[in-house]
Specification:
The complex is a heterodimer of chains A (about 110) and B (about 110). Chain A has about 110 residues and is an all-beta fold. Chain A has no helices and 11 strands. Chain A is about 0% helix and about 55% strand. Chain A is globular. The relative contact order of chain A is 0.33. The model of chain A has no long low-confidence stretch (mean pLDDT about 90). In chain B, a hairpin with a 6-residue loop joins strand 4 and strand 5. Chain B is an all-beta fold. The mean pLDDT of chain B is about 95. In chain B, the strands form 2 sheets. In chain B, strands 2, 4, 5, 9, 10 and 11 form a 6-stranded mixed sheet that branches. Chain B has a 5-stranded antiparallel sheet with strand order 1-3-8-7-6, with no helix packed on it. The chains are: A mainly beta (about 110), B mainly beta (about 110). Chains A and B meet through strand 4, strand 5 and strand 10 of A and strand 4, strand 5, strand 9 and strand 10 of B.
């Protein structure tokens, strides 16, 4: 059983398109995250949700919109994709928003052409 | 602001011991984590320190000095499979995890 699963694993799309990445966790965790890992392998937080409520929104273009229909799901929708959006996007979850370890999904490699 | 620094790359020999350092500057410190990430895979949790001192888990140990803003990850009896990136991550009150740039470790036979 996969603890944190995200789909798709690979996504190739043209500039200007809109795409979504889905994430689900079956760990019963309260907090979920989206991270972006660029070509230099730097892992940067984008969003954090706790019990379906947004608690962190880093400096991310408003073309990126997270949606959490319930605390087990946190999807990421991206409008008007740009070349610079190419990266690996990781979903993660933790028991709560305090100092507990995060479990990561396998990542979605997004390539914008 | 927050700043986390790690060496970019390290190389060590199979069977040896390697120490990966991490220095950080942050406010509201609430713990430090180490993660391992193999190429093309997701980060996986290795260790957690919130109090000063050494935490040991098998071949891996992690040390924290809060007054110095310093941590290290110690890997003993290195194996080829330990070749990976090692990410230091600081947890802050209300801000969740901030990751360092990662250290790419190459273990040579």
């Amino acid at each position: 059983d996969t603890a944190v699963s995200q789909t798709p694993k690979y996504l190739v799309t043209q500039m200007g398109n809109d795409k979504s990445i889905k994430c689900e966790q079956n760990l019963g965790h309260d907090t979920m995250y989206w991270y972006k890992q660029d070509s230099k392998k730097f892992l940067k937080i984008m969003f954090s949700y706790n019990n379906k409520e947004l608690i962190i929104n880093e400096t991310v273009p408003n073309r990126f919109s997270p949606k959490s229909p319930d605390k087990a799901h946190l999807n990421l929708h991206i409008n008007s994709l740009e070349l610079g959006d190419s990266a690996v996007y990781f979903c993660a979850s933790s028991q709560d928003s305090r100092n507990t370890e995060a479990f990561f999904g396998q990542g979605t490699r997004l390539t914008v052409v | 602001g927050q700043n986390i620094d790690q060496p970019t790359e390290m190389t060590a020999t199979e069977g040896a011991i390697v120490q990966i350092n991490c220095t950080y500057q942050t406010s509201g410190f609430n713990g430090l984590f180490w993660y391992q990430q193999h190429a093309g895979e997701a980060p996986t949790f290795l260790s957690y320190n919130v109090l000063d001192g050494l935490e040991e888990k098998g071949r891996f140990s992690s040390f924290l000095s809060r007054s110095k803003g310093y941590s290290y990850l110690l890997l003993k009896e290195l194996q080829m499979k330990d070749s990976a990136s090692y990410l230091c991550a600081v947890h802050n009150y209300g801000q969740n995890f901030v990751f360092g740039p990662g250290t790419r470790l190459s273990v040579l036979p």
